[in-house]
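Structural prep section.
Before we set up the soaks we want a predicted structure of the protein with beta-D-glucopyranose in place, mainly to decide which crystallisation condition to try first. Input record follows.
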Amino acid sequence: MKLTKKAVVIAAAISLGLSLAACSGTRGETPPQSASNEATAATGGFEAGSTIGVSLPWLGTQNWKEAETQFATALTEAGYKPIVQAADNKVPQQQSQIEAMIESGAKVLVVAPIDGKQLGTVLEKAKDAGIKIIGYDRLLENTTAVDAVTQYGSIETGRVQGEALLAGLAERKGAGPYNIELFGGGPADPNAPNFFTGAMEVLQPKIDDGTLVVVSGQVEFTQVATAEWDNATAQKRMESLLAGNYQDKKIDGVLTPNDGIARAILTACEDAGQDIPVVDGLDAEDESVVSIWEGKQYATVAKPTPELIAQTMVLIQALQSGAELPPPTSTANNGKIDVPLYELTPVVITKANAKQAFADDPAKLELLK
Ligand code: BGC
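Run finished without errors. Recording the tokens verbatim:
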């Protein structure tokens, strides 16, 4: 798999005005006929060079920092006036940043919510002002004010995280049963429960048949979630799990929702004198790619930002020109409406496939030394 080649294909799709879903190898459930045919109508378009607002939740993980700079570049290169802001994980801050984008005359808002359910009022206000709204990387919940969401399949992301954990256990820890613990992401982020659901589709049967033993017994999302995706919170939970349950046991693996939390868990295990457990992750952050290459973190899941931005740009360009949006890859009910989803496919990276996966990404290849 060549990550950046795909980005090139998508960029070509943008310049040709082609439907991304038709040419980029996107996946997802086949949308119901109605969803694929009744693509969101872009009523009349808007002036080229208009203001586009991008509202990000925080800059606490590498993907959001990349999104901040790459959205500014992509929008500027396409002739728009970008306003790109991140909200430090504080919902009122994100609400007021979006208010200001509305005041600035933005024609499209690209929004990655801190809390999927807390932006309904401000987004309805934007919709009433004729602004188009695209959810980015995360679903916008409980609102009618969303035209589309671009993301990597969130259930699929969890599934491949679960599969990576199982593969790593077989590869590094011999025959089972295996002692494991489960971690989830920030509960306000609509991705986090979906990642966990996808992972448990893979892991639950192995818990049921005794291959996996969750020694703490903590298997509900509410028990394993990590408030605000905070690495230090995850590290503390891991430390207390080890102190309370693993004084006389080895921990073999940990289901891990992203790379920052993966590294925090590895630190806690090292500090407790445990052998390195099999840990997966998400985002292919540079530090984790290095860790994988050194044989510590077992896997990560890549969801490259350039491709997701390219996908979002396809939608913005369609809205600007007044064309219909391309058919979505699937839909998700957000509590109020069925939202058209434009999903890309996440890819597991281990030491075994890293060179091949990053073959067209010189910056990442540089880390594999
Ligand atoms: C994103 C991940 C990110 C996490 C924490 C999730 O919604 O999909 O890429 O690691 O938020 O920032």
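Observations: The radius of gyration is 21 Å.
Flagged for discussion at group meeting.
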